[in-house]
Amino acid sequence: MKQTKLKNKVINSVLTLGMVCGSLLPTTAVFAEGIEKLAPVKHTVSILEKDVTYLKSDIDGFTPVRMVDRLRDENGAIKFCINFDLPSPNGLEYESYEQLDNATTYLMDAYTNGNSNLTGDKAIDEYIVQAAIHNIKSPESFSLDRNFVDDYGILPRIKALKAEALNAPAPSIPVFENKLSFDKASLSFELVGEEYVSDYVVTNLKGNVVSTSKVVENATPNTKLIDENGNEVVSFSDGTKFKMVIPETELEGQALSPSVTAKGSFTNAYNVAVRYGGHAGFQDVASYELKEFSEDKQATVSGEIEAVKGSVKFVKKGTDEKLLDNVQFKILASDGVTVEKEIVTENGEGEASGLAYGVHYLVETGTLNSYVLNGEKIPFTINHNQEVIDLGTIYNKLKTGKIAVHKVDENGKPLANAEFTKTDSEGIKEVKTTDETGLVEFDIEANNVYSVEETKNPLGYIGAFLQENITVEDDNQVFEYTVANTLKTGKIIIHKVDENGKALKDAEFTKTDSEGITEVKITDETGLVEFDIEANNIYSVEETKNPLGYTGTFLQENITIEENGQVFEYTVKNTKDKIIEKTIIKETVKTEKSTFPQTGEKANQLALICGLFVMIAGVSIYLSKKKTAQKNKN
């Protein structure tokens, strides 16, 4: 029903709100109450009671608000309005045409089957459900966000029920219970004459059955299902009794796992909310009805027929020809996966019996620590003669590995000609030298313990390496080590002194290596100068500049390091230069004056005068600036 204060709402808003109820499922599978399918269905909808409410105005405390109409069809079945802004139908014939949303279905199910948010009073509960529907589909016209007088405490119930409805999933609990099963899950077979015959199976079939069929799998071409009268079974009904019959000649001694599946097609339904309409200007209504769907069920029963049995044997050795005990094997079925038997060798032999007819595989699953697992999947076939299959000798490779040593200097550069020695547990040694890449490798085997040691350094290098207790655990295992040697280093130390042993600074010395690279250093206050040097080089050191006022020479060649930390120390003397005083006797030589003009003498006199003038001017300027600066300071 439309309230007075809402009569002037435009029709467009109603149409917009009506679209909220868009259908989720097809319309062709809607049922009326009962099993009979009615699509579409027609009902005459009338008002049972008008202007029903349990809420009062929050303004004056007594005016009824949020009033609704109670609707029923010609059979007295309840209907709910879904367009609050339009008047309710009264005596109008409505037709079903679509399934409503999950929220409306949830609300109608709550009314029909109960809900914790309802009171148990059907009249009040009808109002709660109708109010929740209006609040969802007409949230503005039927708002519940005011503090209405709520004597029955229904507002919290409406809101809680609405929240549940908006999160409700699609219906998932069928109305009808359809069943299809067998009275047993497995078949037992026995050989009767030339046929394998199973025990009887009874079919249980209930519900709205449309059709049934059978599927026989993992059987021979002429396998049949036979009833108690000897007739072949092709479909099922409740109580159908049958047995499976398989010709023995079609098995050829092999194992078989036959099964039969009964398939049934049923009709079932869900309770859903269905929209009824057809009269513009009046509210559509919702009805709680059945929606049909197809339901498939099946039942399966299967059995096992054992194959003819046989056996297998073999001998187990290592590549060193030793018999190997406690090696584990599995025998797999023809699928290459299913484990039939497990074997552990004794005295180097393995055997298994009771193997089914057909193809099998022997797979090694565990061997001794010193040997490589044989990964071969060995096939063999047990035939109807039940013979013993001899697989001969199966070998395991003794595990091997390597010791790899990378020889480098302190900068990671590979070093050749480093000698390494491998020693085994019996004291047997093997000596190898690193190649140009700094690499040396030794082959090793399981069942032994090794050590490797650097027994000779490359020329000019120092370092030590010893690795013990090397044992092969895995095949192709590599024990890899990087061994660094340090180039031998040393110093050239020169003490520079005078003839009295007094230290002299500022003497220049030059170190030159075998490639002509030079380094120049000068003695300090103590007369000391030091040069760093390395092995595998030849050096010379020379005094290339004497201290001021001193004379002397020094050259030391062919300096080569033999030991790490070696010091070449030299004391170099210089002699102080002597000052020789000379007496110069000036002789007066009488010469005759030149008759040429004395222009040179006049020029010298002029230059002297100019120089004195410049000097006097400079002093004057200096004194003037100084006096000015003094005044500024004061």
Automatic annotation (TrEMBL):
TM helices/strands, residue ranges: 606-624
Domain Gram-positive cocci surface proteins LPxTG residues, every copy? 596-634
Which Gene3D superfamilies does the record cross-reference, listed alphabetically? Immunoglobulins
Q: Where is the signal peptide?
A: 1-32
Question: Which Pfam families does the record associate with it?
Answer: Gram_pos_anchor, SpaA
Per its UniProt record, what PROSITE patterns does this chain match? GRAM_POS_ANCHORING
Superkingdom classification of source:
Bacteria
UniProtKB keywords: Cell wall, Membrane, Peptidoglycan-anchor, Secreted, Signal, Transmembrane, Transmembrane helix
UniProt lists the family membership as follows:
Belongs to the serine-aspartate repeat-containing protein (SDr) family.
- Record-linked PANTHER family: COLOSSIN-B-RELATED (PTHR36108)
Identification of the protein by name: SpaA isopeptide-forming pilin-related protein
Q: What is the lineage of its organism?
A: Bacteria, Bacillati, Bacillota, Bacilli, Lactobacillales
